[in-house]
Amino acid sequence: MGYFEGLADASFKQDSSGNNVFYAWGVLGKGRILPDQATTLKLRKIVIRYYQILIPLAIALGILRLWLLTLTSLSLLTLGFYVYVYLITKDCPICTEKLTLKESYRNSAKSHNTLMLWLFLLISLLFVLGGIWLFFKGRLFIGLGSVVLFGLCSAVIILMLKVKHKKS
Q1: Mutual orientation of helices 140-167 and 101-111 as an angle, nearest 10°?
Q2: Which of the residues 9, 80, 123, 140 could staple to 111 if both were Cys, CB 3.0 to 4.6 A apart?
């Protein structure tokens, strides 16, 4: 499986009754019990496509420093995503089981390639080092932001690697 599939899998789980449940807001929201495999696959494709558009767009606009356009376009894209998902899931029953952070990481880790996770960890740590360098070069806000963001990314990837290692 690919990177975006791994991200998408973090929003799905099976409940104690074996039903597929979708959490549009991840660990912050309620899940919807999906009626069939076709709906599950449809939502999974939508989530994958959302990430395939959102992440490259955010990176490209961020590199170009088009902050207002970034905020506007990502907000509209996210709003459209959640409206579309709501229309598909509005009649689905709400699941009483919460999605835990551990389950979300485990589901995502399952779908990611171990080598790719190590590569992402290396890249994240390099961005942390770059952020430290920027901080000491006087770019305080960007440097600190990079250290915090990519430090958190590194922590998540380490947790995912631990989850994968426990399984094998």
Answers
A1: 80
A2: 9
